[in-house]
Amino acid sequence: MIKKFLNKVFKKREQTTDAIHLADNNLPDAAKKIVAKKHKINPDLISDAALNTCEGLHKAGFEAYIVGGAVRDLLLDVKPKDFDIATNAEPEAVNKIFRRSRIIGRRFRLVHVMWGRETIEVSTFRGHHHNKGDAKTNDSGRILRDNIFGSLEDDAVRRDFTANALYYNPKTQEILDFHHGVADVKARILRMIGDPVTRYQEDPVRMLRAVRLSAKLGLTIEESTEKPISKLADLLQDVPPSRLFDEMLKLFLSGHAIETINILRAQHLHHGLLPLLDVVLEQPLGEKFVMLALKNTDDRIMQGKSSNPSFLFATLLWHEVLKAWEHHQKQSPMMPALHHAMDEIIQIQAKKLAIHHRFVATMKEIWSMQPRFEQRAGKRPFSLLTHPRYRAGYDFMLLRCESGEMPTEIGEWWTLFAHANTEQRTAMLLPDSTPKKRRKRKPKPKSTTAQENSSV
Ligand code: ATP
Ligand code: MG
User: Fold this and answer.
1) 147 and 293 both lie in a single domain
2) Which CATH number is 370's domain given?
3) Cα(427)–Cα(424) distance, rounded to whole angstroms?
4) Of the residues 204, 212, 259, 421, which has the maximum number of CB atoms within 10 A of its CB?
5) pLDDT at 38
6) From the candidates 73, 84, 154, 298, which is the catalytic residue?
7) Distance (Å, rounded) from C-alpha 294 to C-alpha 310?
8) How far is the CA of 69 from the centre of ligand 1 (A)?
9) Do 188 and 291 fall within a single domain?
10) Number of folded domains that form the chain
11) Does the residue 205 lie in any domain?
12) Mean per-residue pLDDT for 234-254?
């Protein structure tokens, strides 16, 4: 008994010392400095706004580095879509330096510095949440609030991937690299800093970030970084719906939505995202429709065109709406059944993912326009053309035709109709097959009563 007890104690102690060794091994080496000749970053790809922000901070006596995704992209010779700056200045100090700036955020307090139409995000070096401070975690280890400031080294450990923990000083043109990030970027590897399981538990969105960055930049997710993802996929249930929505937009509007969805499915992460997306993807017609829609979105973004999130979400959920619509038509007429179906699907969805109200309104408009494309007689096609969301509704209908859900002939008819003049349009109309509604005759006043009344 005593032996068993001692064994237990010692075993536990061994495990803790192991853990400490592990933690020690995970501490960053002193930063490597990588000079311009080695990293070969093209300075022309850096925005003036980012350079001005660093200069302003340097002049005020603070440290300032371009950090994160921008340095990673610069190393890959990709023009960064935005620039983040890390500094040892606290938010209030940054705010004082730049006239056009404001402090934002609760979970992380940041400063937005505005230069014309560009906004630069400036964050103060963060400390590790094991340090004393006001970091808060929930039962599953997710960090809820975390506003502890720290050193540059601390800041690097807190970042997600080695490729995202690089600090570029525009003044010296050197990169500070604490976690061999430059080597990983050059080898096109995405590697988690620290123990991947703990880091995913702290913030499950990191699993989605791994997928997104690997799809966007063609990076391979390193084995131990990838392995826990499918097992931990359920942790996404715990992420606030509004944060999940923001991440969803980034996932699907990156211009690499097809690769993204393929990796999400391979990692079983699509279950946690849109609760209905996995169901849709399991039906051949639904899958074809979603994949066509994502391909369409990718092509638009790659051509520099904008892509409307409402349209995208309308496509992702359409086949669930269709199913519910069919069901409700057993009890109600076509249009009320459709509205009932739309509300039902949006409601199920909202529990998981908070789609902004303004997007929901447009999604409903796109959906409720769909039955109107089947009506090609009388005045109706003319009035549909004047609908403020006609273009989105039409594009949506074309996808339905392309996926085999609707006869292609209808799509072709509408394409011709929209381009024709009034005379041609009138000639294109189909014969009105709907039976004309007969006006109900007003019941005649009862003559007897009238007579009786008049006789009174
Ligand atoms: P993108 O090119 O899509 O902007 P990014 O890596 O720059 O990719 P951001 O969301 O702009 O993504 O984040 C900026 C930086 O902040 C990241 O590079 C990373 O260093 C850090 N970061 C962002 N999200 C997390 C997270 N969930 N956990 C740890 N670090 C994060
Ligand atoms: Mg970024």
Assistant:
1) no
2) 1.10.3090.10
3) 5
4) 204
5) 93
6) 84
7) 13
8) 6
9) no
10) 2
11) no
12) 88
Write down the pTM of the prediction: 0.79
Identify the nearest ligand to the CA of 205 by its number. Answer: 1
Residue 354 lies in a domain: yes
Nearest ligand 1 atom to the CA of 123 is 16
Q: How far is the CA of 317 from the centre of ligand 1 (A)?
A: 28
Percent of the chain as helix, strand, coil, to the nearest 5:
60, 10, 30
Containing domain of residue 129, as a range?
10-192
Q: What is the pLDDT of residues 326-381, one digit of tens each?
A: 999 999 999 999 999 999 999 988 877 788 888 999 999 999 999 999 999 999 99
In angstroms, rounded to a whole number, what is the distance separating the alpha carbons of residues 277 and 317?
A: 7
Q: How far is the CA of 256 from the centre of ligand 1 (A)?
A: 17
Q: Whose CA is nearest to atom 27 of ligand 1?
A: 206
Question: 192, 215, 249: which is the final residue of a domain?
Answer: 192
Average pLDDT (398-412) is 96
Residue 280 pLDDT greater than 90, yes or no: no
Task: Please report the DSSP string for 84-127 in residue order.
Answer: EEEESS-HHHHHHH-SSEEEE-SSS-EEEEEETTEEEEEEEPBP
Q: What share of the chain in percent tops pLDDT 70?
A: 82
- Cα→Cα distances 104→57, 121, 205, 354, Å: 18, 10, 21, 21
Domain end, chosen from 163, 192, 221, is at 192
- 73: Cβ contacts below 8 Å, ≥ 6 apart: 79, 80, 81, 217
Say if residue 405 is in the same domain as residue 296. yes
In the structure, which protein residues have their CB atom closer than 6 angstroms to any atom of ligand 1? 68-69, 81-82, 84, 159-160, 164, 203, 205-206, 209
Q: In this predicted model, what pLDDT tens digit does every residue of 51-61 receive, in sequence order?
A: 999 999 999 99
pLDDT score, position 354: 81
Instruction: Please choose from 164, 179, 247 the residue to mutate so as to test ligand 1's pocket, defined by most ligand atoms within 8 A of CB.
Output: 164
**Is residue 118 a part of any domain in this protein?**
yes
In-domain check, residue 255: no
- 21 pLDDT band (50/70/90 cuts)? very low
Which atom of ligand 1 sits closest to the CA of residue 205?
27
User: Is pLDDT at 134 greater than 80 in this prediction?
Assistant: no
**Is 82 in the active site?**
yes
Averaged pLDDT, 45-72: 97
The CATH number of the domain where 97 resides is what?
A: 3.30.460.10
Residues contacting residue 185 through CB under 8 Å, at least 6 positions apart: 72, 75, 76, 163, 166
Q: Which atom of ligand 1 is nearest to the CA of 159?
A: 30
Which of 73, 155, 160, 298 is catalytic? The answer is 160
Q: Distance, CA 124 to ligand 1 centroid (Å)? A: 14
Q: Indicate if 134 belongs to the active site.
A: no
154 is catalytic: no
283 shares its domain with 417: yes
Best of 84, 154, 157, 191 for a ligand 1 pocket test (most atoms within 8 Å of beta carbon) = 84
- The per-residue pLDDT for 135 is 55
- Which protein residue has the closest C-alpha to ligand 1 atom 6? 69
